[in-house]
User: Which sequence fits this backbone?
C-alpha cells in the first residue's frame, strides 16, 4: 500500500494524512465474499436493499453487483438530533423509502457501526412496518455494543476505534472518494 507521503495519496486528500488500513483490493475481496453469503441467504431473492445515506453509497453500489439474486434498491437518510460527532441516539428519517416495507425482506446497508445507536433506532423504526425480515450488513463495526444487535448479520471488517475515512466514509464531507479506507491522523 502507498506510503503516507506518496504524492498521489496526498493529492487526493488535499495534503491530509490518511493512513491506509484497508486497501482497495482487500475491500473488493471482502465485498465479493459478503455478496456470495447474501446470495446464499436469500435463495428466493425478492430483497429490498436499503442503503443509509450518505456513508453507504459506495459500499452499497459495489455490494449489490455481487448479489446474484433479484433485488430492489432504495435509500434512507437519517439524522441524529443533537450536535457534535457523538451520536445522540435519536434518529429521524429525512428521506423515507417510497417502497412499502410490509412483507419485504429488508437488507439494511451501513458504512460503519460505532455506538450502534443509529442502527438500534432504525431497526425499531423499520420493524414497526412489518417487513418479512430485517437484516443489517455493515462494512465496518467498531463493536462498542455490549451485545451485538440481533439484526446484525454481516460485518465486512472489525474496525479499530479510530476515525476512519474513505470508500464513502467522511470527515466533514471530505474523503468519501478515497478508494481505500484509512485512519485520519490529522483531522
Ligand atoms: P453510531 O450511531 O454511533 O453507531 O454512529 C454511526 C454513524 O456515525 C455512521 O453511520 C457514520 O456516519 C458515523 N461514524 C461513526 N464512526 C465513524 C468513523 O470512524 N468515520 C466516519 N463516520 C463515522
Ligand atoms: Mg453514516
Assistant:
Amino acid at each position: 500500500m502507498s506510503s503516507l507521503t506518496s504524492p498521489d495519496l496526498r493529492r487526493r486528500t488535499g495534503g491530509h494524512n490518511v493512513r491506509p488500513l484497508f486497501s482497495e483490493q482487500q475491500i473488493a475481496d471482502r465485498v465479493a465474499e459478503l455478496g456470495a453469503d447474501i446470495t446464499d441467504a436469500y435463495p428466493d431473492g425478492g430483497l429490498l436493499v436499503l442503503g443509509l445515506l450518505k456513508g453507504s453509497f459506495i459500499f452499497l453500489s459495489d455490494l449489490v453487483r455481487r448479489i446474484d439474486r433479484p433485488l430492489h434498491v432504495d435509500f434512507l437518510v437519517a439524522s441524529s438530533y443533537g450536535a457534535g460527532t457523538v451520536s445522540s441516539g435519536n434518529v429521524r428519517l429525512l428521506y423515507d423509502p417510497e417502497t412499502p416495507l410490509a412483507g419485504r425482506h429488508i437488507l439494511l446497508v451501513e458504512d460503519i457501526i460505532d455506538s450502534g445507536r443509529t442502527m438500534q433506532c432504525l431497526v425499531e423504526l423499520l420493524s414497526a412496518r412489518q417487513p418479512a425480515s430485517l437484516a443489517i450488513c455493515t462494512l465496518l463495526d467498531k463493536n462498542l455494543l455490549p451485545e451485538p444487535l440481533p439484526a446484525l448479520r454481516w460485518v465486512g471488517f472489525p474496525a479499530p476505534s479510530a476515525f476512519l475515512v474513505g470508500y464513502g466514509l467522511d470527515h466533514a464531507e471530505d474523503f468519501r472518494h478515497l478508494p481505500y479506507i484509512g485512519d485520519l491522523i490529522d483531522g
Notes: Residues 55, 87, 110-118, 163-164, 169 surround inosinic acid (ligand 1) (CB under 6 Å).
